Amino acid sequence: MNRLLVFSLLLASLFFQLSLPADVHSQERNYVDLFIGASYGKMALGSETALFAPRSRNFYGLEFNAKLNLHKNVGIILLDAGILYGRTKIPSPLGSQFDANTSLQSYQFLFGPEVACRNRKVQIFGHGLLGTNHTAVVWNFGNNSPTLIGRTHFALGAGGALDVNFKKHLAYRVFQADLIPTLVNGRWEKNYRFSIGIVAHF
To answer: Are strands 122-139 and 100-118 parallel, antiparallel or unpaired?
Structure first.
């Protein structure tokens, strides 16, 4: 199912690119695109939730993306790094006033191919990625933040983005949406991430 989604996005983007007029294809391409922006994630928390009390599956943070353009319409995402934070606590048998002050952290490190459809103002992307997703419960204790629970698992990424140029070398990323399924104990957990921000073209 996940592979079908990835291939469908790539084929749809390629078809759209081939349908663009010839003058669009002749435009100068960028060699490197860098994106940084704010992210919202809806993250699965797995069987470890029995050990702590997450307040929700909502995570907030940042995303960084570096892409090498091999062709005007084909690129390789060298690194797609997401850093997301959520809220939780570890209940104490002595009462709520003794609950451990903890936080949830999720890190995604992905890479893979991306296809693009471009004109002078707008770029539409579709990508299929793979890598890892690391989730941890961190105890916020003074200047130290020891990890109480941590896990790193294989992850995929399937999604797309829309950029709108506002300067020669700058664009707004109006949205980037990704499904990030993570393989945990032989089962796939569904994670979602949405980002907006700024893209620099080099």
So the answer is: antiparallel
